[in-house]
Specification:
The chain has 229 residues and is mainly α. It is built from 7 helices and no strands. The protein is flat, with a radius of gyration of 20 Å.
């Protein structure tokens, strides 16, 4: 079973990672580049008003150069993320198969949709995808809320879908809404730094890319897992 999980994750994760990298290159990277123009303009304005130390500190931070270098790092990150998420998905699929659930490309789509809900949609309700230059809450607080939301959503979906006991299903429903009742860390008040239309377009494109990634990952994982049985 472990061999089946790893083979499924390696192939499906690589395919989904390449697919996501292509989508990001077509849509997301141009939006990020546009936001960086506004970010640079804001930093230049701050420099002219005597905020040189902060500008110098920001300029000292390493980032990949635009073009081939950035595309290469994006591809590497997408491949690693694809294989990592594929391992999680294949492990969950294997457990479901042990419990007698049918696994194929069609059911894999549902698993992919669940992965999208857990790792993209639910966290985005409180923390939408952000462009460079946008104000945001402290990184540690955002990471903690993201982890809480992903874990609670996964547990909640599992309880609602895979259990028949009413109390467990109620508990699952509570887990689904709990992170949003707690609330995501709020960004500091002030100017956004980028146009609202650009931020909205990026959030929409990011979620669409994530949905395509997860649906492809789920369907391919389901098909491969059944084929390797």
């Amino acid at each position: 079973m472990l061999r089946r999980i790893f083979l499924t994750a390696l192939i499906a994760g690589t395919m989904a990672g390449l697919f996501a990298a292509g989508l990001q290159h077509l849509k997301l990277i141009p939006l990020i580049a546009a936001a960086e123009v506004y970010e640079a303009a804001g930093a230049q304005a701050g420099h002219q008003h005597g905020a040189a130390p902060a500008h110098d500190a920001a300029a000292a931070e390493w980032e990949p150069a635009a073009g081939i270098e950035r595309a290469g790092y994006t591809l590497m990150a997408d491949l690693l993320a694809g294989i990592g998420f594929a391992l999680l998905l294949a492990g969950a699929v294997a457990l479901a198969r042990l419990r007698g659930y049918a696994i194929d490309a069609r059911s894999g789509l549902l698993w992919g949709a669940a992965g999208f809900a857990v790792f993209a949609l639910a966290p985005a309700i409180g923390l939408p995808p952000e462009l460079p230059g946008m104000s945001a809450a402290e990184l540690a607080a955002r990471q903690q809320w993201w982890l809480l939301t992903a874990a609670a959503t996964a547990a909640g979906l599992g309880a609602v879908i895979f259990t028949r006991q009413v109390p467990l299903r109620v508990l699952g429903a509570v887990l689904l809404v709990l992170p949003h009742l707690i609330g995501a860390p709020a960004a500091p008040h002030g100017a956004m730094g980028v146009p609202a239309e650009l931020a909205a377009e990026f959030a929409t494109a990011s979620l669409a890319t994530a949905a395509a990634f997860w649906l492809l990952l789920g369907s391919v994982s389901g098909w491969l897992y059944r084929r390797f049985e």
